[in-house]
Design goal:
Layout lengths: L1 E6 L6 E6 L2 E7 L2 H6 L2 E6 L3 E5 L4 E4 L7 E5 L7 E3 L6 E5 L10 E7 L4 H4 L9
Parallel strand pairs: 3-10
Antiparallel strand pairs: 1-2, 2-5, 3-4, 4-9, 6-7, 7-8, 8-9
Length: about 130
């Protein structure tokens, strides 16, 4: 396991996450992920640590309101959020990880536009 660091564009929000150096991410085509270009690295909440920026974070919810889309109120970048599919985890936008610790990225497509029919296909969080 490797400690990866990342954050938003302006740097007000910074975090670290423990994950393999070769990461498995999901490319979702739901309405919000498709528009934001989010690549999901889903981890247990215990593997995620917000280093700074709690006061800069804003939350957006829609549809069921279960997903907590957290974004920087200054630059608007959503570098992580609490997903509806894994409410005890955190989904990191792999595009917001700093360079230098990720050796490779394996991308799996997910049909989130038809979320209810496909959610069972998502991997579970492994501790």
């Amino acid at each position: 396991m490797t400690i990866h660091r990342g954050g938003c564009h302006c740097g007000r929000v910074r975090f670290e996450v423990e994950a393999p150096s070769v990461i498995e991410v999901t490319n979702c085509n739901c309405s919000i992920c498709n528009k934001s270009g989010f690549l999901h690295l889903i981890v247990a909440s215990s593997d995620f640590h917000l280093l700074k920026g709690e006061d800069s974070l804003r939350t957006y919810t829609f549809n069921t309101g279960l997903a907590k889309h957290r974004f920087c109120g200054h630059c608007g970048v959503k570098s992580f959020y609490i997903p509806r599919s894994h409410p005890d985890g955190v989904s990191i936008n792999a595009r917001c990880l700093d360079a230098g610790t990720v050796e490779a990225v394996n991308i799996t497509d997910f049909d989130g536009a038809n979320w209810e029919q496909n959610v069972s296909k998502l991997s579970q969080i492994s501790d």
